[in-house]
Amino acid sequence: MGAQLRVYKRRIQAVTATKKITKAMEMIAASRIVKAQRKVTASMPYATELTRAVTAVATGSNTKHPLTTEADAPVRAAVLLLTSDRGLAGGYSSNAIKAAERLRERLAAEGKEVDTYIVGRKGVAYYGFRERKVAESWTGFTDSPEYAHAKKIAAPLIESITKDTAEGGVDELHIVFTEFVSMMTQNAVDGRMLPLSLDEVAKENDAKDEILPLFDFEPSAEDVLDALLPRYVESRIYNALLQAAASEHAARRRAMKSATDNAGDLIKSLSRLANAARQAEITQEISEIVGGAGALADASAGSDK
Question: Residue 235 CB: number of other CB atoms within 10 A?
């Protein structure tokens, strides 16, 4: 076997091994998408009803509360960015980071300082490489988040929104995550968690022809909002974590399918080159045999004379 043919054989073996790995990762990601979708669907009713309850309390009272009250002149905002712990998911994390950068620029243009909170090693690495300050970060659970993770993330955010800005608090809470639309479509979006925009909620209810119920509050509307504040933030973060996880699995499945297809194309190309090299070797060997036979015949003819 010629040297060129051996090179092609080794490359085909290496690409074939890579193809098996990417195919396995594609199948694993596909199986996890279904579980993540179920969790997203299961979390929606709780989040919806909790938002309705908060809206009912806010519209049924004149209580000023960080959950629903806009600051007269907001000067500081917190941004929670959700990225991935692992790579091999195409542009999943980079798209979320770009959305966070656009939000940061928009808030800075409004004259607001930004405190950044990050979920996922990819986001932490991005900010760390650029030596940017991060208020707090969490890693190790992005592909399979639980409600306990949402509570852990929500705790410092709730503390910051309830403190005065002079003491390091913030006026607004924003979140950037990747919304799961379908198996083929995932969009990096940003949204404001707090203060809750009652006008937007009212528009959504009008669009659905929903009427908010009337409640009596005991002991007071403010106490009810104090109790609902952590639950609301936790549910919003949990739903975003679940959507981000489903989006991550979908992006990884798509990336691994593309890698598997590319590996298959490369194997075909290398196989053609290997066959051409083998054919060239065979042709050369035949030419050498024919040439040698001819030389022997000429030598025999010369000796007979």
Answer: 22
